[in-house]
Every structure is written in structure tokens, then in C-alpha cells.
């Protein structure tokens, strides 16, 4: 068996999420079906992050085990040909060591949450941003965000459906920046809880609007109660932008 | 009558172009119908540039004459409410002098043509870029482009269906820049011929691929023959990004 590491871009709009499911198309199933069509086998594709319905990725990472050895560029070309016209593109494939696991080897996940902050709705970016018409003080959001950085109990920012054993996570970076009408919230951590980034974005938006104080975020965190924080921001503003791994030793194969 | 100047963003994908037409939806008709629904009149909306099917705009400008005087922010809100769910957003409305004409007063139109230059197809930006898999030497494209700047007979870069009286145009700026996988061609002129930017983009792509020399662009221009230049680049990579007007005297009203 040969293990390949794939880097994948997708528009999450038409999908029920990364993970294969019965009632909606998924990015995982789209990839598995593309393999089935040209490789004569239908391998399991394991992703680094199980993005929700409507969430996008610039660089999701997955691994797959194949019976046959492929030239990486041919694997990419064949996958993309068979993924068409679905909005999923494989950017890169490389042979990975047996020890590489897209999900368990990951040391960092990076997300960006995008808010279009202007009166007029989004025309070009409607499925790619959260439209917030009221003016947001992005500098207040940035200041408030810093209270969440570090190792914390994120119960207040975790979906009630989250299945992680522990609510403790280490948020390595949370940065809010504005460029014109667009506010980007950058977040990085080894792993995230379910809805963590979207619940943080929904909470920071309340601070940006002035409906909550900058210090309120610390109180919401300390409460360890989901109802203490803000609402969940919509999926379409969220992008998985990268996954980090330890440097792999050169493959023997 | 009160004349308003509108700034409009749109995703050109679902439209047959800016201009009202019998067999396809248009941005112009979408705006006129939105007015009809809330203003009780159906005014003519005159745009600065009649973008083709599939071409996008970040800041198209149009004017419209209304019987009633509106607060500009209310006009914007009412238009956007009645444009929904079409991907057209009015960013701004302002009262304009009677002498203002969106098309004839314009002194500059600015376009950007976007090429995604990587092997993998576009997933997130499929309807917003021209995907060119072969590596393009953007610095060669930039050098070649400079031969087109200035007052020239652009017959070689003009659609056979172009209805302009003269093929002479003054191209004020043509700049090619790369950021990662994205190549942007910026063009500015008082006015453009039909398909001029797309024909220039299609020609510069041949230079970038090395299928034509840098000097070939000058020969293609001098030939004054459409068949001497490259093919028309697809519509979905083109964005009308701005329209410039002389500074208006303050309105008396």
C-alpha cells in the first residue's frame, strides 16, 4: 500500500460538510468516488478537519492508501478530471510515510473567518462572507480576542453537540484585522472544538457592535457555559486555510 | 425629476450582461424592476459600461431619474431589499446634477482581468477567474503589455461586432502583476472597444506561455487585423472595478 497526502481546496456551499453522510453530498464522498472512477478501488479518504456544511477550505489535508503507486502529478490530474464539475480541486499529492495520519499527525489547524462589514449586502461574495451591516469596531474585537489566547476551558464556545472528550484547548493565535469593508479573524490551534471558531466569531461581533464590552469575553470564557457567549456565526464565512505537520523524514520508498 | 448616481456591485454569472435583453436576465432589468417594486415608477437605469454576459463588477456606476426625492441611504436600502436574492448590490446612491450622465460623463473606466495560473482547476473561484494551467511568465506579459499603452488603433483587439465609430482608443494603463497563483491584468482608459480587455488578456496569455514573443504584441497591434492577435479570454475573469468622473460642482438642490 502507498499512502498519499493530498492538499484540497473546496467551495463548501453545495456540500453537507467534509464527512460522508447519507442525506447530502460531502467532499469526502466526492473524493472517494473520484478515486473509484479511475483507480479501480474505492479507498477511505481521511481528512485533517471535518468541516461543517457550507464551510470552505483553501488547503484541507487528507491521506489515502492506494494499492498502486502513482506519479503524484498524474494522481492530481486524474482526481481533478474526475471531480469535475464539483467545486473541489486537489492542489497537491505527495507520497507520505506510513506513520503519516492527516488527522492525528496534525500539529496546527488554521482558520480564517470573514465578515463583510458594510450596509450593502454581498453580491460577489455572498456565499463566502458573513454580512454584518452595523459598523464593527475591529480594534475592540482584536483587543477582546486576546483574552481567549492560550490554554483554556472553551466550554462557552463549544457546540452542545461537540463530542471531544475535553473542553480544554490551546488557542495559539486569534487575530482580528480589517482591510476596507472586510474583517478577517485568523485563528490557529493544534485542534478546535466543534463550532469553536464560529462561536468565537459570533461573540466578537457583539463586542464589535458595542453590544458587549471588551472585558465581557473573559467573563463569557470563565462562565464555562455556552449560553454565556454569543451566537454561532454562519458557516459560509469560515475557511480552513491550512494544516501544519511536523517535518516528515524522507520516505524510504 | 431628481437624478441619482448609483454605485453597483454584481456577480455577472447568472446574467446575460448589463443591458436589458429579451432572452436573458440582465443587471439593468434587475435594477429597473427593483425600482418598479418600491418606487411606483419604472425608470430607465443608464450604466457607465455595458458589461457582457458573465462579466462582474465591483463598482459599476449608473444614473437614474426619479419623480420623488429620496434620502440616499433609504434608496440604497430599498433597492437592496428588492434586488434580493439576485447577486446585485447597490453600494451607494447620491444626488447628482442634471448634467451628470453615467456613460457620457465618464472620464475613466478601470478593469481587472484575473487569471488563476496553476495546474489544479479553480474550486472556490471557478466563476471568477480564467484558469490557465500552463506556467505563465507574468514579467514577459507585463513587458509586452507596455506596447499597447497610449493612443492606438486597436482594430486587432476589437470584437468584429464592435459598434464604435472609431477603433482609436487611448489606453492609459496596462499592468500585469502576479500574487502567488493569481495574475491580475489592470487596464484603464477613458473608454474601451468591445472585447478589448478580453482580447488583450487572451493575447498576453500567449506571450506568457512563450507561444508568442514579447515583440509580437506590437506586430499584432500594427496589423490592424483581429486575426493577428490572440483569442478572446473568457468573460468570467473580467471585473469592472471602477469608473472615474470629473469632480462635480455641488448640487444646488
Quick gist of this model?
The structure is a homodimer of 253-residue chains. Chain A is of the alpha+beta class and 253 residues long. Chain A has helices at residues 27-39, 72-83, 138-145, 196-209, 216-223, and strands at residues 2-10, 45-47, 56-66, 88-96, 108-116, 130-131, 150-153, 168-179, 182-189, 238-244.
Can you walk through the features of this model?
The structure is a homodimer of 253-residue chains. Chain A is built from five helices and ten strands. The first copy, chain A, is 22% helix and 29% strand. Chain A folds into two domains: 2-105, 2-Layer Sandwich (Alpha-Beta Plaits), CATH 3.30.70; 108-241, Alpha-Beta Plaits (2-Layer Sandwich), CATH 3.30.70. Chain A has 253 residues and is of the alpha+beta class. Chain A has helices at residues 27-39, 72-83, 138-145, 196-209, 216-223, and strands at residues 2-10, 45-47, 56-66, 88-96, 108-116, 130-131, 150-153, 168-179, 182-189, 238-244. In chain A, strands 1, 2, 3, 4, 5, 6, 7, 8, 9 and 10 form a ten-stranded mixed sheet that branches. The interface between A and B is medium-sized, with 25 and 25 residues.
Amino acid at each position: 500500500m502507498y499512502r498519499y497526502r493530498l492538499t484540497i481546496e473546496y467551495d463548501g456551499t453545495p456540500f453537507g460538510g467534509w464527512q460522508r453522510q447519507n442525506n447530502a453530498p460531502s467532499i469526502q464522498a466526492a473524493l472517494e468516488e473520484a478515486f473509484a472512477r479511475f483507480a479501480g478501488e474505492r479507498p477511505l479518504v481521511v481528512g485533517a478537519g471535518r468541516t461543517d456544511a457550507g464551510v470552505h477550505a483553501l488547503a484541507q489535508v487528507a491521506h489515502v492508501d492506494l494499492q498502486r503507486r502513482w506519479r503524484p502529478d498524474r494522481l492530481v490530474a486524474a482526481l481533478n478530471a474526475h471531480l469535475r464539475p464539483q467545486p473541489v480541486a486537489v492542489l497537491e499529492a505527495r507520497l507520505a510515510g506510513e506513520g503519516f495520519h492527516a488527522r492525528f499527525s496534525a500539529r496546527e489547524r488554521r482558520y480564517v473567518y470573514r465578515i463583510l462589514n458594510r450596509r450593502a449586502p454581498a453580491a460577489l461574495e455572498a456565499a463566502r462572507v458573513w454580512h454584518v451591516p452595523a459598523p464593527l469596531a475591529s480594534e475592540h474585537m482584536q483587543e477582546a480576542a486576546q483574552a481567549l489566547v492560550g490554554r483554556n476551558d472553551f466550554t462557552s464556545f463549544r457546540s452542545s453537540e461537540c463530542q471531544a472528550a475535553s473542553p480544554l484547548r490551546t488557542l495559539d493565535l486569534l487575530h482580528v484585522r480589517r482591510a476596507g469593508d472586510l474583517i478577517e479573524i485568523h485563528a490557529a490551534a493544534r485542534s478546535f472544538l466543534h463550532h469553536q471558531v464560529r462561536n468565537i466569531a459570533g461573540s466578537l461581533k457583539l463586542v464589535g457592535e458595542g453590544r458587549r464590552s471588551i472585558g465581557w469575553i473573559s467573563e463569557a470564557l470563565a462562565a464555562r457555559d455556552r449560553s454565556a457567549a454569543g451566537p454561532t456565526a454562519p458557516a459560509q464565512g469560515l475557511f480552513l486555510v491550512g494544516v501544519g505537520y511536523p517535518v516528515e523524514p524522507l520516505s524510504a520508498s
